[in-house]
Design brief:
single chain; alpha/beta; Rossmann fold; 3 domains; seven-stranded mixed sheet; globular
Length: 416
């Protein structure tokens, strides 16, 4: 029996993340294999009808590919085959991930202009150079000096004068605007005021200009906490517990945002979300991607304080329960009430268990990294002091994970 040939549409969908693949290789790989046993040594019989049909599909696929994924406007910014003087992580992010990611994101931005783009929180130019293949001029901003030095060196060594890297706070409008496209991926959780950031991004876009924002949501810290516990990494565990605490209490530092809350904030700032998707961990959204288009001037942003147009009820309830208990040792009754609330069935209720984990790690864990902790993090591992009760931490996190998973499984029948 022969495997039925894959349709052109499915081929396009399957390869949409690849930028300008070899069409001949793409088709040849999908020619169905013959399953019948053949005597050894005999030539494989020709399939003229099937070959003709596949050649016709090649022609159709080529036309469709150039329609949906046209050639790069500026191939000089394609650094995938170049040697980059950077650390392995930066090289991997630029050469192995960024070009496919940017191609996928821009595919949803119909009618986007190609004059200027803004990359907010660019790091070491992780996605900046991929953006430079499609836009005539790039402004990339970052507050950290070290990654900026790396990004500027790469741009200089590859003669990409169209790309300008600036050290700047993301909540201050960048020079060189307005922009056809604004890219802000995975950095909003570091800003002091999310509403101010979103307002700045929207106001920096041209009328009908496009924005892409990627955010860490409620599932991101638990995902990383699970890894830290498995690796017995106390430093990463403390950082992610701090992210949970700040996200719950709304402190203006490293935190998470509740999924589904960016769209109304964009609307309040004068933009309309056109598409949004999330990636889940145990049914808990941990990263949300949102595409939006500027449609008007800011209309409501002055009425917003902090991170949300309206604080989600489930987050408000969790905040009310946790806020009086932060920063001190808990009594037995308080621990019992936290566990009781965690099992109450609310979507974010299991996060109350993280206060119990914080108590095991450090009951006085503050919302910012202290100077003492920063110094300790730079010392050799053997001098970092006592380790937490990992068995207790593991048990508490397992309770959290089981509650989240049970709630997710309970929701599946209702969704169907």
């Amino acid at each position: 029996m022969r495997t039925p040939p894959e349709s052109v549409n499915s081929l396009l969908a399957r390869t949409s993340l690849e930028r300008r693949p070899r069409i001949d290789a793409l088709i040849i790989d999908k020619v169905p294999e013959r399953r019948e046993a053949q005597p050894p040594g005999l030539p494989r019989p020709a399939l003229p009808e099937e070959v003709g049909r596949r050649l016709a599909e090649v022609s159709l696929l080529q036309a469709a590919w150039h329609t949906y994924c046209p050639p790069m406007r500026h191939p000089d910014a394609d650094l995938r085959e170049h040697e980059l003087r950077a650390d392995p992580y930066t090289v991997h992010r630029i050469q192995d991930q960024s070009y496919a990611r940017i191609a996928e994101i821009l595919a949803r931005c119909s009618g986007v202009g190609h004059e200027a783009a803004l990359d907010v929180g660019c790091g070491a130019g992780f996605d900046t150079f991929a953006l430079a293949t499609e836009f005539d001029r790039i402004i990339a901003i970052e507050v950290q000096r070290r990654p900026l030095r790396t990004a500027r060196r790469i741009a200089r060594e590859h003669q990409l004068g169209r790309v300008a890297f600036q050290r700047q706070d993301a909540c201050i409008p960048a020079s060189g605007g307005p922009f056809d496209f604004i890219y802000c991926n995975g950095m909003s959780h570091y800003t002091q005021q999310r509403a101010r950031l979103v307002e700045t991004l929207v106001q920096s876009a041209k009328p009908n200009g496009w924005l892409f924002i990627g955010e860490e949501t409620e599932g991101y810290a638990p995902l990383e906490i699970e890894k830290a516990i498995g690796e017995r990494d106390n430093r990463s565990l403390r950082a992610r517990l701090r992210q949970v605490m700040n996200g719950i209490l709304g402190f203006p530092a490293f935190r998470f945002f509740a999924s589904g809350t960016l769209e109304p904030l964009l609307f309040a700032c004068g933009a309309e979300a056109t598409w949004s998707d999330t990636t889940d961990w145990v049914g808990l959204p941990y990263f949300q991607r949102t595409w939006a288009r500027r449609v008007s001037e800011t209309i409501l942003v002055d009425e917003i304080h902090g991170d949300y147009t309206d604080l989600p009820d489930e987050l408000g309830q969790l905040r009310d329960v946790c806020k009086p208990l932060v920063g001190r040792r808990l009594t037995r009754d308080e621990r019992f009430r936290l566990l009781e609330f965690a099992e109450s069935g609310g979507r974010l209720a299991p996060f109350a268990i993280f206060l119990l984990i914080i108590e095991v790690i450090d009951a006085r864990l503050s919302w910012e990294t202290s100077l003492t902790e920063k110094i300790r993090n730079r010392t050799p591992t053997r001098l970092k002091g006592a380790q937490p009760d990992w068995e207790r931490v593991d048990d508490l996190f397992t309770q959290f994970r089981d509650l989240v998973a049970a709630r997710h499984h309970a929701e599946i029948p209702s969704q169907n």
